[in-house]
C-alpha cells in the first residue's frame, strides 16, 4: 500500500492556526526578509511526511483565493524532499498542454522522488473565466479535450518532436528539450464519476481516485459502492486493453473511539471559523465518516486492509493538518505497512 497526503494550503487545510494566520497575512505586505507563512508551514509538515515514508504529496490548485501558486510551491518544496513524489493539479482548458509538458519536466528533474499530474476536469467556473479559460462543466467534450491534453503531454515526453491534430489542440513539430528523470514518464491521476469521465480514465489514466455517493449511510455501503466502481472500471480497461490503478482519499482523524474522533475532527475544522456552526459541519462531515478512517488507529488499519483487498493501492489522506497529525499518521499507519 502507498500513502499520500494533501499539501497544506489555504483552501484544503483545516484546523490549522498557521494557515488561518497565513490567509489573513496574504492581504498585506510581508515583513522584510520573511517568507509566506503558508509556505513555511507546508515545508515543515511535508518534510516530516517525507521523513516518515509517505509516498506522494498532492498539491491542489485554487486560483481564486489566498493559495500560493501550485507549480511554484511544488518546485520549492518538492526539490527539498528526499524521496516523496510531488503531484500537481492541472486544469485542461486553463493551461496549454505544451506549457504543462515543459513545467512537468522541470519539476520532475528538480524532485528526487519525481512528479505526477492530477488532471482536474471539473473546476470552479468563476476561476476559469477570470484567468482566461473555459471550464465546459456541462459538456462531455471536456473529456475529449482532456484526452487530447494528455496525449500531447505524453507525446512530447517520449518523442524528440511531436505533432498533433485534434478537435481542441493542434501542435506542429513541438519539442521539449528536457526528458523525464526516469524511463517511465510522469503518471496521470484523475477522478471522474460520469460515464464519459470513466471512459476517459480507462483510455488515458494511470490512476483513478475513487469516490462514492454522499448519500451512503454506512461504511459497508460505501465499500460496496467502491467495489461496483472498481468492477465497472475493470470492464472499461479490458475494452481498452489498458491497466488503471485505484486510489482513494478518505478523511483521517484519530480518537479513543469513533464518536470522540468525529467530535474532535469537527472541533478542529471549526476552530478558526469566524462564525462556527458545528451542527452544519457535523452534517457535512458525515459522508467523510463513512470512509472508515475516523476512529482508533487500529480501526483505521483494518479499514486500509479492506481497501487493499479490494485492489486499492494508494490511500491519499485528507486531514486536519499539522506536524503532529502527520507524525501520528506516519507512526500509526505508514510505519506498520513498511515493516
Give an overview in words.
The protein has 339 residues and is α/β, with parallel strands linked by helices. The chain has two domains: 1-62 and 71-89 and 207-339, Luciferase-like domain (TIM Barrel, Alpha-Beta Barrel), CATH 3.20.20.30; 91-113 and 122-192, no CATH class. 47% of the residues lie in helices and 16% in strands. It is built from twelve helices and twelve strands. Strands 1-2-3-4-7-8-9-12 form an eight-stranded parallel β-barrel. Strands 5-6 form a two-stranded antiparallel ribbon. Helix 4 links the parallel strand 3 and strand 4. Helix 4 packs across helix 6 (141-158), helix 6 (141-158) packs parallel to helix 7 and helix 7 (195-204) crosses helix 8 (219-240). The longest helix has 22 residues, at 219-240. It starts with a strand and ends with a helix.
pLDDT < 50 runs, ≥5 residues: none
Q: What order do the SSEs take from the amino end to the carboxyl end, as H and E?
A: EHHEHEHEHHEEEHEHEEHHEHEH
- The portion of residues assigned to helices is 40-55%
Indicate the structural class.
alpha/beta
What's the overall geometry? globular
Task: Kindly identify the CATH topology of the largest domain.
Answer: TIM Barrel
> Briefly, what CATH class of the largest domain?
Alpha Beta
Keywords for this entry:
alpha/beta, TIM Barrel, two-stranded antiparallel sheet, 339 residues, eight-stranded parallel β-barrel, 12 helices
List the helices and strands and how they pair.
Elements: E1 2-6, H1 17-25, H2 37-51, E2 56-59, H3 70-78, E3 85-90, H4 97-110, E4 115-119, H5 125-130, H6 141-158, E5 162-165, E6 170-174, E7 188-190, H7 195-204, E8 207-209, H8 219-240, E9 245-248, E10 251-254, H9 258-270, H10 278-289, E11 294-295, H11 297-310, E12 312-319, H12 323-338
Parallel strand pairs: 1-2, 1-12, 2-3, 3-4, 4-7, 7-8, 8-9, 9-12, 10-11, 10-12
Antiparallel strand pairs: 5-6
Helix pairs in contact: 2-12, 4-6, 6-7, 7-8, 9-10
Amino acid at each position: 500500500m502507498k500513502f499520500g497526503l494533501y499539501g497544506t494550503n489555504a483552501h484544503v487545510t483545516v484546523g490549522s492556526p498557521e494557515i488561518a494566520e497565513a490567509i489573513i497575512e496574504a492581504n498585506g505586505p510581508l515583513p522584510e526578509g520573511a517568507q509566506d507563512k503558508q509556505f513555511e508551514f507546508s515545508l515543515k509538515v511535508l518534510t516530516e511526511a517525507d521523513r516518515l515514508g509517505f509516498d506522494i504529496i498532492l498539491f491542489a490548485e485554487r486560483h481564486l483565493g489566498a493559495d500560493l501558486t501550485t507549480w511554484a510551491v511544488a518546485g520549492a518544496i518538492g526539490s527539498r524532499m528526499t524521496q516523496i513524489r510531488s503531484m500537481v493539479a492541472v486544469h485542461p482548458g486553463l493551461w496549454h498542454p505544451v506549457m504543462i509538458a515543459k513545467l512537468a519536466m522541470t519539476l520532475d528533474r528538480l524532485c528526487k522522488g519525481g512528479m505526477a499530474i492530477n488532471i482536474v476536469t471539473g473546476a470552479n467556473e468563476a476561476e476559469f473565466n477570470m484567468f482566461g479559460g473555459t471550464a465546459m462543466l456541462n459538456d462531455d467534450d471536456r473529456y475529449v479535450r482532456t484526452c487530447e491534453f494528455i496525449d500531447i503531454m505524453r507525446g512530447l515526453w517520449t518523442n524528440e518532436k511531436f505533432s498533433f491534430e485534434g478537435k481542441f489542440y493542434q501542435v506542429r513539430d513541438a519539442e521539449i528539450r528536457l526528458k523525464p528523470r526516469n524511463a517511465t514518464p510522469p503518471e496521470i491521476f484523475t477522478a471522474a464519476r460520469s460515464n464519459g469521465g470513466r471512459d476517459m480514465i480507462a483510455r488515458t489514466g494511470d490512476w483513478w481516485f475513487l469516490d462514492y455517493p454522499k448519500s451512503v449511510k454506512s461504511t459497508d455501503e460505501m465499500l460496496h459502492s467502491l467495489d461496483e466502481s472498481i468492477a465497472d472500471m475493470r470492464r472499461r480497461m479490458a475494452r481498452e486493453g489498458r491497466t488503471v490503478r485505484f486510489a482513494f482519499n478518505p478523511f483521517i482523524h484519530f480518537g479513543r473511539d469513533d464518536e470522540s474522533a468525529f467530535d474532535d475532527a469537527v472541533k478542529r475544522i471549526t476552530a478558526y471559523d469566524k462564525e462556527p456552526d458545528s451542527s452544519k459541519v457535523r452534517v457535512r462531515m458525515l459522508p467523510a465518516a463513512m470512509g472508515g478512517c475516523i476512529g482508533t488507529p487500529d480501526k483505521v488499519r483494518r479499514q486500509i486492509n479492506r481497501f487493499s483487498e479490494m485492489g486499492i493501492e494508494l490511500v491519499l489522506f485528507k486531514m486536519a493538518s499539522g506536524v503532529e497529525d502527520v507524525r501520528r499518521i506516519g507512526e500509526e499507519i505508514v510505519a506498520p505497512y513498511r515493516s
